[in-house]
Design goal:
alpha+beta; Transferase(Phosphotransferase), domain 1; binds adenosine-5'-triphosphate; binds magnesium ion; Phosphorylase Kinase, domain 1; 13 strands; 3 domains; five-stranded antiparallel sheet; single chain
């Protein structure tokens, strides 16, 4: 993924037209057929084939000859395309370093033209181990580019719903598979040695409670998805959130709260009763 920026700079206007066309058509086709791109960009077929060959050698698209020649984004390609759009729209003006690279995302820091620090998260649902994710999340038969864009959209909508009520990074924008939020100068809980673990645990439970009352259950809450510094804590990483009224929401909440309680018990010997906390979160205590 380090070569994302290099690929970004190698893309010219012609390539961008092809990528825009793939993006426009990917909702209907897993592999977008050549004729759809020809319709959008008005290239001759042999010229388009050359462009696709070049994009494929750069790792931006994956071409497939079946009944017809079709093409789709790789994770890198979708990210490069999303980055183009973010820059074009003036959301970011300078990309920085990789902050974190997980199974399902790569996060960079970035600046806008007012020199404000941002985090840009490129989602990658199902790239490359699609099968595992399908089993875990049960998305049906949708293909991975669509799933990936949906994941970004879902995370952005959760942040929008929560920001101002719950301590989450400020959502700035989303486009393609990228979610832009304000950079938080803090580290993941598991990398911090807390001086006041009881107090921090209370703070986290209060945030979970506020989230619950905004209708949201995180769904992957752990020491890896909470940022902490001297000033406070922030909850991050929302693509898998559940609505409180959705089926299994009770189990999901229970798992989230157990993860946190267990972590504080294991790491600091701070103990809390699971049922008491669950009742508090749901507003029954
Ligand atoms: N707004 C932010 N400010 C500072 N750092 C951030 C921000 N958002 C993400 N990060 C950093 O990027 C890392 C990965 O982010 P996040 O947890 O959202 O993705 P992930 O773990 O790859 O998610 P998933 O695998 O569930 O898609 C975080 O652990 C954190 O270090
Ligand atoms: Mg995470």
């Amino acid at each position: 993924m380090n070569d994302l920026l290099e690929a970004y700079h190698r893309i010219d206007r012609t390539d961008t037209c092809v990528l825009s066309s793939i993006f426009r058509n990917m909702w209907d086709f897993e592999y977008v057929p050549l004729h759809a791109i020809i319709r959008d960009c008005a290239f001759k077929e042999d010229r388009l084939e050359l462009i696709l060959k070049k994009l494929s050698s750069m790792g931006i698209v994956e071409n497939k000859y079946d009944e017809y020649l079709g093409t789709r984004f790789t994770f890198k390609g979708l990210s490069v395309f999303s980055l183009k759009r973010l820059v074009m729209k003036g959301i970011i003006s300078k990309m920085g370093n990789i902050l974190g690279e997980g199974k399902e995302s790569v996060v960079f820091n970035a600046l806008n033209d007012r020199n404000e620090e941002l985090a840009v998260k490129f989602h990658r649902v199902g790239y490359p181990s699609f099968k595992k994710v399908r089993e875990k999340r049960n998305y049906g038969t949708l293909h991975i580019t669509v799933l990936t864009v949906r994941s970004a959209k879902r995370e952005y909508s959760a942040l929008k719903r929560l920001y101002g009520y719950v301590s989450v990074p400020e959502p700035i924008f989303f486009d393609g598979n990228a979610v832009v939020s304000r950079l938080i100068d803090a580290r993941e809980l598991y990398r911090v040695r807390l001086k006041n673990p009881e107090e921090v645990l209370e703070m986290i439970i209060d945030e979970v409670r506020k989230m619950y009352h905004r209708g949201v259950i995180h769904g992957d809450l752990s020491q890896f998805n909470i940022l902490a510094n001297q000033e406070g804590i922030w909850i991050i990483d929302f693509p898998q959130y559940a609505d409180v009224w959705s089926p299994h929401s009770d189990e999901i909440l229970k798992r989230d709260v157990s993860n946190i309680i267990d972590y504080f018990d294991r790491s600091y010997g701070v103990k809390k009763d699971l049922n008491e906390v669950l009742n508090y979160v749901r507003g029954r205590a």
